[in-house]
Amino acid sequence: MKCAPFEYVRPASVADAMAALAEADGDGKVLAGGQSLVPLLALRLARPAVLVDVNRVPGLDAVARDGDAVQVGALVRHAALAGQTLHPLIAEAARWIGHAAIRTRGTAGGSLAHADPAAELPAVAVATGATVTVAGPDGERTVAAEDLFVGALVTSLGDAELITGVRFPLPDRWGFVEFARRHGDFALVTAVVAEVGGEVRIAVGGVGSVPARAVAGERTLAEGGTAADAAAAAGDALEPTGDLHGSPRYRRALAVEMVRRALVRAGIGGPG
Asked: What does each C-alpha distance from 205 to 45, 55, 115 come to in angstroms?
């Protein structure tokens, strides 16, 4: 199928992009890498009246050290994230995103704004306690990653708001484990462990509508539990959804093993 008709706008600044979105009155979409949006347009599952192409907006494509964190611009491509050395956890996660063509076009901001519960970067953002910079009609605001994701493909962004960057704290220790039927497929389960500022944080993706903090597993570790103990506690607290790829019971069991492996890779909780 072909896309439904839409007006195409190519802003030269963040302010111009927000103005175009505001004028669209809730019927506009942002085009960055287009790896999620374009297929939806082609299938007519999305029919925006206005398409706002932000690829020419300057200043949104840099990766830079920012104290004890790394600042990632919204237009940074997944391939660039996989190749950078400032934040090894992000680099590892980005290597699992799709295939080469997708990594070449897909963007950091687009992945977070799309909010696919099986995506890698949202899980990393939750695990590290990342903060997202959002530009909107009322100025700039900062949103914690855990508050950005509301549901599957749903965020707390307003219709005229635009992600401009993400600040990912640097973990002292980390572990990333993903299970997919084939490399490049959507993950059935992703587990991310990050020790930030002495606090161990665990996030699990692919088991619900948003990347979930495994608070029960974190508490078990803080009380002296092993990696296996923490993984079991994390699994007990999860409420996975089932689909044609796996039942809730299967996904819970898989999540337990992925969390255990991620903790072991991070060197947290003993040999597991």
From this structure: 24, 28, 11
